From TrEMBL:
The chain crosses the membrane at residues 6-27, 39-64, 148-171, 183-202. InterPro entries: LeuE-type. One of its GO terms (cellular component) is plasma membrane. PANTHER family: ARGININE EXPORTER PROTEIN ARGO (PTHR30086), ARGININE EXPORTER PROTEIN ARGO-RELATED (PTHR30086:SF20). Keywords: Cell membrane, Membrane, Transmembrane, Transmembrane helix. One of its GO terms (molecular function) is amino acid transmembrane transporter activity. This is RhtB (Resistance to homoserine/threonine) family protein. Its main location: membrane.
């Protein structure tokens, strides 16, 4: 069990550190003066990931994978959301600056959580990634309590790694880069989201 758990956590870490929509979303929400939107985005991404893990643990991800129409519906919904986020980034000229702490706690928190949640939740590739990892390392006859231990470890790892990533983005050196290159980073994030969203439609 310990060996399987270590392997799951190791693969999960590699998957998290691979540049993708979640990472770009966290970078985007880390451009403000307060950590609130970025940390809310972490919670949103982690909540979406928790749903994917639960689908895999209880076998529902197999149904999603086998039902082509349902899979495509989720895939295209995710593509549309990425395109919408990309357009928002490209239209923004100053990134996510919040000068009022109260405003951040309200709109900033909600926007961060919502974007993180849907960015992860509407990405069926996350479900397929978790499903493939589980099917390779966890046997079907594995007791449910043991599966829940594996699932919990993945979720906790997701929260911890993304929290550390966001806090790293708020170190003085990186803050200096983010603040000076906000427009460039916002434009790059917008292009990445649009490319990812468009790629889903043509794949």
């Amino acid at each position: 069990m310990v060996e399987t758990l270590a392997t799951l956590v190791g693969i999960g870490f590699v998957g998290q550190m691979s540049p993708g929509p979640d990472m770009m979303m966290l970078v985007r929400h880390s451009m403000g003066r307060t950590r609130v939107p970025a940390l809310a985005c972490v919670l949103g991404v982690s909540t979406g990931f928790c749903v994917h893990v639960c689908l895999s643990v209880f076998g529902l991800a197999v149904l999603l994978r086998q039902n082509v129409e349902l899979f495509n519906a989720v895939r295209y919904a995710g593509a549309c959301y990425l395109l919408w986020i990309g357009a928002q980034c490209l239209r923004s000229r100053s990134g996510l600056n919040f000068s009022d702490g109260a405003a951040c706690a309200a709109g900033g928190w909600f926007e961060g959580f919502r974007n993180g949640l849907f960015c992860n939740l509407l990405n069926p590739k996350v479900t397929l990634f978790v499903l493939s990892v589980f099917t390779q390392l966890v046997r079907p006859e594995t007791p449910l309590p043991e599966k829940l231990v594996y699932a919990s470890a993945l979720v906790v790892e997701t929260v911890a790694v993304w929290m550390a990533f966001v806090l790293l983005l708020y170190t003085p050196a990186l803050r200096h880069v983010l603040e000076r290159r906000q427009n460039v980073l916002n434009a790059c994030a917008g292009l990445v989201f649009c490319v990812l969203g468009g790629a889903i439609f043509v794949m």
